[in-house]
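Sequence in, structure out. Go.
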Amino acid sequence: MEVSTSDEPSLKIDNHELSLQQFGEILSHFEGWGMRISFVSEDQLSDPPVPVLRKAPKRLSKKVLDELEARARYESSIAKK
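Output:
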C-alpha cells in the first residue's frame, strides 16, 4: 500500500493506483470466490507461487442451510425488540 498525494490510502497494482473503494469495487465482482494475497520481497515478484491443494470442505445440505437461515431471522427479530 502506498500513500497517495491525498490523505486516503491507496494500492498500486501493476502501476495503477487504486483507492480502497476502487479496489473494493473490483473485488465485488468476485463475491463468493476465495482470494489469497502473498507478501514477498521485490526480488521474488517474478517467482511463481507454490500451489497449496486441500480437500474441499463438505457442503451443507439444503435442510441445514434453511435451519440456519431461520435461526438467523429469529435471532435478528429478537435483537430488534
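Check: The mean pLDDT is 82. The longest helix spans residues 62-80.
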